[in-house]
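Researcher: Predict the fold of Proline--tRNA ligase.
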Amino acid sequence: MKQQTMLIPTLRSVGEEAAMASHRLMLRAGLIRQLAAGVYTYLPLAYRSLRKVEQVVREEMDRIGAQELLMPAMNPAELWRETGRWDTYGPELVTLGDRHERDFLLGPTHEEVITDLMRNEVNSYKKLPMALYQIQTKFRDERRPRSGLLRGREFLMKDAYSFHADAETLDETYRAMIEAYKRIFTRLGLDFRAVEADSGAIGGKENHEFMVLSDSGEDTLALCGSCDYAANIETAQVGEPEGGWAAADISRVPELKKIPTPKASTIRDVARLLDRQPAELIKSLLFIADDKPVLVLVRGDHEANEVKVKQALDARTCELADDETVRRVTGASTGFAGPVALKEDVKVVADLAVKGLADAVIGANETDAHFIHAAPGRDFGVDVWTDVRTVEEGDTCPQCGGMIRFARGIEVGHVFKLGTRYSEDMKANFLNATGKEQPFIMGCYGIGISRILAAIVEQHHDENGITWPSGAAPYPIHLIAVNVKDEAQKKLAEDLYEQLRQGGVEVLFDDRQERAGVKFKDADLIGIPLRITVGKRAADGIVEYKFRRSGESGELAAEELLGKLSELLKRVDESK
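Model: Structure tokens for Proline--tRNA ligase follow.
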């Protein structure tokens, strides 16, 4: 393609709202333009890269036997009401009504639609397992769309769904998808990790996120420095300390005693008032899980993890109770709750670290009062002991006992084992080998196509612009005629352009009547992996090649270019 007539509106600077490197560079390089908050137009260069990413994804999905289809973006609300997600998904749903006052939504994901298709079209185990996927625009009304393509309200996604008669074939497909995802992200030149994660509004049990490592990522990852354990901080488990979660010796602890703690409603205030360390206090938090109150206990220097609480209770919804509910259940204002003398009978879930506390401080369920000398098992009971706190750097790895460290990441893929979460709600059944009806066992597998584009730029750029890896570059070669007014340069460049095109090589040809400095700055900004420059030695038939990433350069005869092109392109990703 000739650059003179191609839509590549490069910019020297952009506004302060573009804080992420990928956002700034994709705007400056003429890849994207914002139409509305979180809604972008993909200009020709970006769209070419999107198609490259899509092709890699399709090849790897097809390789494991998944079948491509295309489902409607506009979904009838009644399907989502069957699963309860019309009400629980929240304000991120983009909803609309038609002229007949029928409710619809623009799909953020397609579990309901694909399950509806399968319950109507597949009724025998003989057709299973089956995996189906699509690449389609999705819609989510993000509260704060920002960071360019990393958090938009309209985005491109590959979503796949598998249907099974048994858990064994789900396991096989799940493993195959994980391996396919690893090949996809490797082919696209990304440094990534597969981490344990929360399933969120999708539901299901086992799931993994694929995170591109980046200091500017929104997610915090817990990684072990000694083994391959990796998890999102939302779900990272805390390993047992040496000696296990031993209960404290409470034989010499005095009796429970209530004392006044006026206006001391925080851990810091209570610790300061009583001359205690936060680790000697028990923090009591009231949650509402599936409309039922649950009291969660964690050590005072730890933070309760809402995702872990939800998982421990196998709940669909879980959130902190409001002040009014706290007063009703505990009899006190927020900050004075405790596990003794509650006004209502509630389940008590305690973090494992609480086992080791003796002579602890707890809320007295009375405003401006706490208990001292509290001991678990003696003064209050616990219904569930489990890990419900947020992991911290330096904690023990649950896999090998090593030390946990934190890193930042950008989510680009997520795979889930859904089980029968959707098929049971939607009565999507098939006849098994014994002739009995049973619900489909399901998995789902997503990749953010447009997020991948931004993640690549986050990992592959320098002070001058983008440094595309070959797998996602809009073109492999950028051919530059330094001075098109020079006849020798113009003729040689045009001859090479035609030879490359006839040889089936994709090439961007900078034939603009611009200064050499402008052309080279734009070339660095756009970041195509291999640059071929036709300059002052054109009359001698000599051209220069340069690798964008490493800056390595050299000269060769123009007549040798086609013969050596394959070797040069192989060296693109090797040049660091």
